[in-house]
């Protein structure tokens, strides 16, 4: 049974997921702040790893205890932890206190993990999960656009204090919005015999969860090197900055396309076509020396990110509608997010070749497609079985009804 959410509850879910996932986009700014104040890239890398680790662990804990956690309470705790982490980071930056800054990033990461996980779990319980996850993707793109536009206006990227102040403001706004989050128990409709701790996932769901892990690795293989690849291909800083300036607009196109697709084309074609576009975009970014082709590849990659993510969450919600698998998928993505840059760094150290890095990225997407192929076929058949009786009932309804 699905939960029927009010409009304010959908907005709270979108803001919660956006706040929880902002770490992925804002991480370079946090790393930059740590590097500037604490002297060296090692400090920035340690802070980033700590935040992602805490995010993953919090996601795992929330996933494991999902049945007993009221949505609004869990979301508010996550939001308050995020706000506390940002405020402590701000204090630590001002006073150049490295241990406090590291602890603050752990607290912020825990809040982000809890927020992102519970938001995705409750989205899976919506009457139309595909619409709920599309709304979350819209929330993420709008939130990110506002965040980075504000950063640009304040010129905050060069001031570690402003970075954390602005981040704190966004965390505070998220906390206010989360007051409207759903306050159900995620397992309220499962019956007294439902045991979320012992109910095992099916092999198909496990394949999709592995696919989520590969997807998260693939996302962060080439992305951190995008600017370096462009410069190596002969593009200027101004040209690359102009491309990134359009990223918010193209990010919005991803969920817009997902919303327009709905379920008309099933599950298989949209995800496989999106993966194919992502592969083509990687090739364009790695090999093109023309700003139009390079920029088109980079913007297509960003657009496919916000198209593929809601489609993947819709797929796992179709196969496992309790919301638990969606929560675990969030944890998997958080934990594996740090693996991509690590592999990318190892490849660049060994070969010094962006082409080699690009082709490893392509192979990751091919592996993802192979993992989700069978689950997509099953989900498509399930979807068709649900839609066909409804279509028949409409076709044979008496006139005037």
How many separate structural domains?
Answer: 2
Q: What share of the residues lie within helices?
A: over 70%
> Structural class of the secondary structure composition?
mainly alpha
Please tell me how large the radius of gyration is. Answer: 21 Å
Low-confidence stretches: 188-198, 390-397
Q: Which geometry do the CA atoms define?
A: globular
Number of strands: 0
Any idea what the CATH superfamily of the largest domain is called?
MFS general substrate transporter like domains
**Average of per-residue pLDDT values:** 78
N- to C-terminal separation?
26 Å
CATH class bucket of the largest domain: Mainly Alpha
Describe the structure.
The chain is an all-alpha fold and 401 residues long. The protein folds into two domains: 1-189, Growth Hormone, Chain: A, CATH 1.20.1250; 198-387, Up-down Bundle (Growth Hormone, Chain: A). 79% of the residues lie in helices and 0% in strands. Helix 1 (7-38) runs antiparallel to helix 6 (160-177). The longest helix has 42 residues, at 354-395. It is globular and about 60 Å long. Mean pLDDT is 78; it is low at 188-198 and 390-397.
What structural keywords apply?
single chain; 401 residues; mainly alpha; Growth Hormone, Chain: A; 2 domains; 0% strand
List the helices and strands and how they pair.
Elements: H1 7-38, H2 41-64, H3 71-94, H4 98-123, H5 129-154, H6 160-177, H7 203-222, H8 226-232, H9 237-245, H10 247-261, H11 268-287, H12 291-319, H13 324-336, H14 339-351, H15 354-395
Helix pairs in contact: 1-2, 1-3, 1-4, 1-5, 1-6, 2-4, 2-13, 3-4, 3-6, 4-13, 5-6, 5-10, 5-12, 7-12, 7-13, 7-14, 7-15, 9-12, 10-12, 11-12, 11-15
